[in-house]
Hints:
This protein has 397 residues and is α/β, with parallel strands linked by helices. It has three domains: 2-107 and 238-306, FAD/NAD(P)-binding domain; 110-234, FAD/NAD(P)-binding domain, CATH 3.50.50.60; 325-391, Enolase-like, domain 1. It has helices spanning 13-25, 124-133, 147-158, 179-191, 243-247, 292-306, 373-382, 388-391, and strands at 2-9, 31-34, 70-72, 77-81, 86-89, 94-102, 106-108, 119-120, 139-143, 162-166, 195-197, 200-208, 211-218, 224-229, 231-234, 238-240, 252-253, 255-257, 269-271, 276-280, 285-287, 318-323, 326-332, 339-346, 350-357, 360-367.
Amino acid sequence: MKEYKYIIIGGGMTGSSAVMGIRKIDPDGTIALISMEPYKPYNRPPLTKGLWNGKNIEDIMRPIEKYDVDIFLETQVKEINRDEKWILTDNEEKNKYQKLLIATGGDPIQMPDSPDGVISYRTRADFEELKELAKTKQTFCVIGGGFIGSEISAALTKNGKQVTMIFPENGISGLLFPDELSKFVNDYYQEQGVAILNDRLVDSILKTNNTYLVKYHNINTEQTQEKEFDVVIVGIGLKPNIDLAEGAGLDVTDGIVVNEYLQTSDPEIYAAGDVAYFKNLGLGKRMRVEHEDNANTMGLTAGKNMTGEQEEYDHMPFFYSDLFDLGYEAVGEMNKDYTIFSDWIEPYKKGTIFYLDDDKIVGLIFWNLWGKVDQGREIIRERKEYQIEDLKGLFTE
């Protein structure tokens, strides 16, 4: 049994950022990074963006080697023994730790009874598989109208593929955008050549020889239809990987509960990234955030704190997306139950969407309006009350 000063479970952006955080404070402490993937840490956003626009796969890899880390790939941690401070892997190896970080992220939600070959898109391996299929296949079904669905649909369409999107919401990113913007994005995608089947739920996917028969129904009329595709891709959300933490007796809910220093209910064990249920100090509420900025910043803070630092995680993460030639950055909490006001500089082309709770700004989308995130963070943190008429012109070019 080898003893490490630090063990990190999870080889994604959060885990590799934690290594950087550790090395900022402790240049010599032994580190083990354990990943279920066959690849060393890499940046995830290019999987639906830059890699489809000619970016080289090597350019997304993180320089983990320079930090003197023992890396275990294609390895799963089965058990955490908190009393004796060791972890057990699926190859029956035990390693002791002084400090442990759980950065297990999440698994994509699967369509029930999906046949072999349906891609629940999330990893580099998924990209490699889809990129290979795109060389010979032409018709692609994308189930889901959120981040993954909208971005991979745009990427495939720009690569000359026939794409059909199927999702239950009224429009693309319908759980996030106000209805009128969501409808605009629907129309825009259709202009780009994407077939949009909104207000539809997929009932089944059947594999027939080399194609997939997707059966779906309209949630308003209950009318059932079916369509055949060469490839089916699923992007309908993420389920946080909490089983390991739960098995170790740590506090869990919709994620692993952490304090302001990213410690779990066991102070020697930390959690960060997609799996962490943390208190967003700027919003004054607990949440999970499944985006790059949160993974990088929270991982860095967790790594520092594992060395003995006491740095509060008070960062308000932002996220962004590219939708063909449209794009946005967003910060805070976007909830369709909040009061929503859209301040357009140019309707649906450039502007700010405000989300207000009890007259306080809690979320902002900057639509084709760049460099406003820091200003947005400040305004959300102020917790100032606004009337709708006061919001017009608050953010300009």
